[in-house]
Amino acid sequence: MQSPSVGAAEGSPTPVTESAASAGEKAATSQGAVHASGKSASVPPAESAPSEAKPIETVSTSRDDTSRLGYLVAAVLFILGIKGMTHPRTAVRGNMLGALGMLLAVIVTLLIAETPPWVIVAGLLVGGGVGVVFATRVQMTQMPQLVALFNGFGGIASVLVAGVESLKLAGTDQRVGSFAAALAGLIGAVTFTGSLVAAGKLQELKMFWKPWSFSGQQLVSGLLLVGCLGLAVLMLLVGGANWVFWVLIILAGVLGVFLVSPIGGADMPVVIALLNSYSGIAAAAAGFAIDNIVLIIAGSLVGASGLILTSIMCKAMNRSLANVLFAKLGPTSDGPSADDVYEGKIKATSAEEVAMLLDGVNRVVIVPGYGLAVAQAQHTVRDLANFLEAKGVTVEYAIHPVAGRMPGHMNVLLAEADVPYEQLKEMEAINPTLSQADVAIVIGANDVVNPVANTDPESPIAGMPILNVHESQTVIVVKRSLSPGFAGIPNPLFAADNCLMLFGDGKQVLVDLVTALKEG
Questions:
Q1: Can 447 be counted among the known catalytic residues?
Q2: DSSP characters for 379-407?
Q3: Taking the model in full, what pTM does it have?
Q4: Three-state secondary structure call for residue 500
Q5: Contact (Cβ atoms closer than 8 angstroms) between residue 212 and residue 261
Q6: Which of 68, 274, 394, 413 has its CB surrounded by the most CB atoms within 10 Å?
Q7: What share of the chain is helix, strand, coil (3-state, %, to 5)?
Q8: pLDDT tens string for the chain (520 positions)?
Q9: CA–CA separation, 276 vs 272, rounded Å?
């Protein structure tokens, strides 16, 4: 049987686009002529003429191949970027590879959508300009809240992508696509509002700084979650329903606020890691909704790495994720008061006395905390270490996994001051040798060096792994005052026999200490 595009018999002037009916009529006419002449000559079968090129389909196929290749390269760059960021030496390169992969993915997607070039350029200029402003003006002390905002941006981007897809599917029977859009919107909205609350807490805004909740809040949060999941299932059962999607988004936004608002500042490193994971999962769900493979890959990588980091943070605090999300870290009513712990036991010192103490020591361990970030003293700490190392002193930095307000906060601060990575020692590596340190200098850390975690099973931080600086020969604690850490409990380390308190602004105190060392 001939296809519609097949030509007529050889020598026929019939064009290649002639219909099958027309070709049949000509064949019948030819056969009639043969019978009329009385000859039994057979009519040769019609030959197939070469099909003409189809430029539209060729261009489309070429474009599809190019987009697949671009997405493949972007996905490889994402994987290499994540791999690079696992080590400080390759972290900058990994970050650049990841950014390049995202740029490539965005450009390929815009080209597929036949976006005008001027729109692409304008978007790059605006987005790049905002990035430059953030990179140059945000202080290192504000980096945790910036990371929280970035998580929120990722969440709201997924909501917008899912919202557009929901509009396209409204009134259709595309149930799976509608369900994927609903999940992307649900997780993205929770990420967005939760990240805004987290950023407010880290910025110490009055309305967010202190954990707040109301009676029955956990029950309300549970009902909101059930309601959101119910609406998502409804979109799976009935297909596209745009009003259902936006009701779901509103409820999910409220849920995000209720989930993060009761969590205290001490748990912010865990919360930031978890919200980062949420943003990745939302992006992956949005990728399923719009059938975009590179978005699925990128979201899956971010979601998985965020969950792994969350698990590491929880393990470092010896707490479960449920305990972080639903329990409050704070003082108990029957715990010892600050007066009971400190009265008559605090030994204040001066920069000059500490300089004399450091004369002739062999090993010094520096313990950075959030107070170091607040005082912007990382460069001064590096100057102190340089001076001591010039005298032949071994200097190391003891890094607690949850010191600061985001994962890796202390590593970032010290890297900014060009502290050699080899001198940064993780808690598990340095704890066994802290008893051999001549002097441990604690700068702005509190709960992560509180020995109560090991001695009082009723303490809010009971069981939390700490840096055992109390085992060092001498401990110098640099703090503005005896104010408690995030857990809100006094620290017996400050009243220990081998502890000296050096009160004042962290940066100024260290400047005075370096000056005293040089003069000595």
A1: yes
A2: HHHHHHHHHHHHTT-EEEEEE-TT-SSST
A3: 0.73
A4: strand
A5: yes
A6: 274
A7: 65, 5, 30
A8: 444 443 433 444 444 344 444 444 444 444 444 444 444 444 444 444 454 554 555 555 666 778 888 899 999 999 999 888 877 778 889 989 999 999 999 899 888 888 888 988 998 899 889 888 887 888 777 778 888 999 999 999 999 999 998 888 877 778 888 899 999 999 999 999 999 999 888 887 877 766 677 788 888 988 999 999 999 998 888 776 678 899 999 999 999 999 888 887 667 788 888 999 999 999 999 999 988 888 999 999 999 999 998 888 887 777 777 777 765 555 555 566 677 778 778 899 999 999 999 988 999 999 998 888 888 889 999 999 999 999 999 999 999 988 877 778 888 888 888 888 889 999 999 999 999 999 999 998 888 898 988 888 877 777 788 899 999 999 999 998 888 776 678 889 999 999 999 998 888 999 999 999 988 7
A9: 6
Within a 10 A sphere around the Cβ of 455, how many other Cβ atoms? 10
Would you say 425 and 399 are in contact if contact means Cβ atoms under 8 Å apart?
Answer: yes
* 3-state SS string for 49-102: CCCCCCHHHHHHHHHHHHHHHHHHHHHHHHHHHHHHCCCHHHHHHHHHHHHHHH
Question: In degrees, to the nearest 5, what angle opens at C-alpha 216 toward C-alphas 212 and 219?
Answer: 115
Amino acid in the structure at residue 238: V
Half-sphere exposure of 256 (CA within 13 A, CB side): 29
Sequence letter at residue 317: M
For residue 110, which amino acid is it?
L
Alpha helices in 291-405, H assignment, sequence order: 293-317, 321-326, 338-342, 351-358, 370-375, 378-390
Question: Contact at 8 Å (CB) between 248 and 232?
Answer: yes
For the record, the structure tokens of 502 come out as: 């050096």
3-state secondary structure 409-426: HHHHHHHHCCCCHHHEEE
Compute the distance between CA of residue 457 and CA of residue 474 in angstroms, rounded to an integer: 26
Q: How many CA atoms lie within 13 A of 73 on its CB side?
A: 14
Question: Which one of the listed residues 173, 291, 447, 505 is annotated catalytic?
Answer: 447
Going from the C-alpha of 402 to that of each of 87, 153, 264, 408, 506, the distances in angstroms are 18, 24, 14, 8, 20
Angle between helices 378-390 and 409-416 (to 10 degrees): 60
Candidates 361, 357, 324, 330; CA nearest to 447 is 330
